[in-house]
Amino acid sequence: MKPTALITGGTGGLGLATTRFLVSRGWQVFVADCNEQAIKALAEEKGIIPVMMDVTSTSSVEAAFHLIRQQVEKLDAIVNFAGI
Q: What is the C-alpha to C-alpha distance for residues 59 and 28, in angstroms, rounded to an integer?
C-alpha cells in the first residue's frame, strides 16, 4: 500500500513542487485547493487525486475530508501550503 498525503494549496509554488516530489517517490497525493481550474489541470497526473477545498470554510474542509475518507483508510502526512 502506497503512503498517502494531503497537500493543501498544492496546485502551485512549493505545494505543487512537494506534490510532484512525493508522487515521484511513490506516494499517492490528495491535492486540495479552492482553484477549480488548477485542480482540474492536475487531475490527469498519475498519483494525484484532486480535491476541491476552501480552507477558510469549515463545511468545505469537512466535505473534503469525507471524500478522502471514502478513498483511503488513513493519511500518512498532511502538508499545509494553503494561505491567504
A: 24
